[in-house]
Amino acid sequence: MRWGQPHPISIMAKRLLSENKTTGTKTYHDYDASSDQSIITTSSDVTDIIEANKAQFNATDERARYGDMAKVASIPMNVYFDLKKKGILNDQKKMKAWLNDPDNRYFRTRPGRV
Prior knowledge:
By secondary structure, the protein is of the alpha+beta class. The chain has helices at residues 47-59, 77-85, 92-100, and strands at 15-20, 25-32, 37-44.
């Protein structure tokens, strides 16, 4: 670099800030030099929950009737808190629609409509 030229902005790689092995949640820090912004992201490994849901879904007779306390889904904590923040969790009609949405099928533990 020659004297008087602008110093190139160093690019920081995504860095792990914290990890919760119980919930499988990891929080990362990244820096976007083009916008000069720090970015904090959280991700969760939900593989175990999804695999358990699939097994329970496949083991349930789709003709079985729902009881008063039938388990219909198992969702990770980060999804739970997101649903709560969006007002879906405490609204029975919205929660049923969310559970019946094909995009959320991997959280279901039994076939049929809620």
